[in-house]
Amino acid sequence: TNVAVQKQGEEYNDKHGGKWNVNNLRLYLESILGREKSDQLFHTIKFVITHSLKACQSVITNDRHCFELYGYDLLVDSYLRPWLIEVNASPSLSYTTPMDRMLKGNVISDTLDILFPPHN
Question: What is the pTM of this model?
Answer without folding.
Answer: 0.82
